[in-house]
Amino acid sequence: MNMINIKEYMQQLGVEARAASRLMARADTNARNQALLAIAAGIRRDKEALLAANRKDMDAARAAGMDAAMLDRLALSEKSIATMAEGLEQIATLADPIGEITDLKYRPSGIQIGKMRVPLGVIGIIYEARPNVTVDAAGLCIKSGNACVLRGGSEAIHCNQALAALVKEGLRTAGLPEAAVQVVETTDRAAVGELITMKEYVDVIVPRGGKGLIERISSEARIPVIKHLDGNCHVYVDDDADEAKALRILENAKTQRLGTCNTAESLLVARSVASAMLPKLAAMLTSKGIEIRGCAETQKLVPQAKAATEEDYYTEYLAAIISCKVVDGLDEAIEHINKYSSQHTEAIVTENYTKARRFLREVDSSSVMVNASTRFADGFEYGLGAEIGISTDKIHARGPVGLEGLTSQKYVVLGDGHVRG
Amino acid sequence: MNMINIKEYMQQLGVEARAASRLMARADTNARNQALLAIAAGIRRDKEALLAANRKDMDAARAAGMDAAMLDRLALSEKSIATMAEGLEQIATLADPIGEITDLKYRPSGIQIGKMRVPLGVIGIIYEARPNVTVDAAGLCIKSGNACVLRGGSEAIHCNQALAALVKEGLRTAGLPEAAVQVVETTDRAAVGELITMKEYVDVIVPRGGKGLIERISSEARIPVIKHLDGNCHVYVDDDADEAKALRILENAKTQRLGTCNTAESLLVARSVASAMLPKLAAMLTSKGIEIRGCAETQKLVPQAKAATEEDYYTEYLAAIISCKVVDGLDEAIEHINKYSSQHTEAIVTENYTKARRFLREVDSSSVMVNASTRFADGFEYGLGAEIGISTDKIHARGPVGLEGLTSQKYVVLGDGHVRG
């Protein structure tokens, strides 16, 4: 397609998505759940065809010299296909967020006023290689009464088209418009440029992928973006920390998985307990193969620690490295976190009630934790059922974004012929 | 100031606002309320000085040939000064939104998870002539634990500086940072350009004023904008409308005040009741001096109606004009509204339960009403206590934006050494 055709093509998707979003917003709970279950059934039934489509993508990616980590994200297996289907079945069991009316109260004027939860409308989702995002995102949008336009990585095009066909079949089975979920069929990058600027047809953009993709989309979008940039998460071991808890939490937060956004990337230790606890914490990290980059005080207590630069404290390593700093106490810890963190997830280890309360209130991150591992920052762990991403923005949705993040609230006013005085 | 100096000046405001926002976020409820009351007392005390500052602005505005409507908005009076002070006192009586923890529940993993309401951080507010916005906006930001940078119209500069001094005095009295409320001292437009792009220092922009200002700011901002563009509000008189209620509601919605954003600008009437009701509705409008622009069917029933163009149905007149269309019934009414309205406020007049429910669910506007005047769409009428504006956006805040719209929610996780399995 040339540029003009791409513009026309995307506008057409937009028109159809907007029309479908109206039908989705009024579709009943049962129809939306039926669609989810039908898609899940289709995925299980067409397992072999999906694996075949994925092999085409994998072959092309290997030929193009894609690295092992990307190939890993692109790959489907019998297990990952079953997981996609289960994900949809789980979303079907969640309570319907749409139409919920809350806070309905009478006002002195006699009107009754409340809020009704409604879909956002049309969600544009832009992501990289992982084909499971196609199914997860479609499932969350269908459940929340939205339409969506999905633009997956060009590497996964065959697989995404096969999944899109199953999604459309499921929508049809449930009597819902097929255009409620549309997969962009061109791999041309100009399609993304259109998607993120079609204000009339798209209400919000959710980019998922590497920081480069997300920064580019945020800066070019003319539509609100729900995004997650970095996960530079901190564990602060307070003066009043329980040593066993500190060891257990830090081990889990840093070493359970190195490459997730809720992995701890920086350790802060209060000076009064540093000489007692830091060597043990460091020994645990070293035994797990984690490189420590610390301040001068850290280096005195931990001979194996390298020197940390200013840049280290800003860094989300996603690797077997952690930065470390000895701090005065709670005040310096909070100040350090609010300066260097990416406002994702931070944890304090303390037995002190007042300091726990202050940490919760004063740390300006999307998740703040007391005596728990940062690894818990996740839609499933929080009971949201599924997540479309983790937002490090401050407006609309912060932290794991589940169904509610794909909705908004409008005011409903009930009267009996009331007029304003 | 030259461009470089303006950039430096605005960056400095930003740095100070960010630092102040940290202190405001942790300031206790009492200190924030004390500041509001101290500012109110200062305003009452310095009434004469404020009137004098306003006279300077008025003289300059008259000399510059400002029109009567703008002069009216710029003018202060003893009464409007008292109203400003009362507004602050009312905000002080509202419940503190900050720190509220909701939905705190245990998860199977053993962690307890909930949401805590927190300030957004730094709010940039850009507005035109009205000096009362300086006080209202400062009051809402102080109460909600935010810092703000206010950029009022250059016409009101003397008055805004006088008010800013009183705000700073009030903050000081309560032991809060003066930089929590900063008024941009330069009238150079480049300052706005800086304000709406300083991502590091400003979390959200609230533009208030004419459509031109708001469109320009929305398209140039690199920071999320909470905005209100148009108020093209509809009243739909259904087949099952009560005639007396229809007359009363339309009269109030259209004629109580012509220039407000929640004034009705378009009337839809179901065909089955058009011949019975439309002439009476039209006679009422005509008797109030309202010009009617209608479809062909309207013109048959209402001889005094002019022909409406397609453009009329999109128009927010803010004047003694209303557009009118006869529609098939509920389906066409909803379709028409979702196409032409600005998603602000729409009302149905009906006695039919099922159609009332459908209108509430399917009309995609920030306020949807049954048997009540669109004029109720207002923060005070809704019980929010005050509003910083009415949002026609879909994400974050829809409809009247009060204290809650200046806050966000972060997740809090409480554990006892819990780690993820």
From TrEMBL, chains A, B:
Source organism, top-level taxon: Bacteria
Domain Aldehyde dehydrogenase, first and last residues per copy: 16-286
Record field: catalytic activity: L-glutamate 5-semialdehyde + phosphate + NADP(+) = L-glutamyl 5-phosphate + NADPH + H(+)
UniProt keyword annotation of Cell membrane present: no
Gene Ontology cellular component annotations, sorted alphabetically: cytoplasm
Statement: the UniProt record of this protein carries the keyword ATP-binding: no
PROSITE patterns: PROA
Chief site of localization: cytoplasm
Swiss-Prot/TrEMBL GO biological process terms: L-proline biosynthetic process
Keywords in alphabetical order: Amino-acid biosynthesis, Cytoplasm, NADP, Oxidoreductase, Proline biosynthesis
Biochemical pathway: Amino-acid biosynthesis; L-proline biosynthesis; L-glutamate 5-semialdehyde from L-glutamate: step 2/2
Name of this chain's protein: Gamma-glutamyl phosphate reductase
Gene name per UniProt: proA
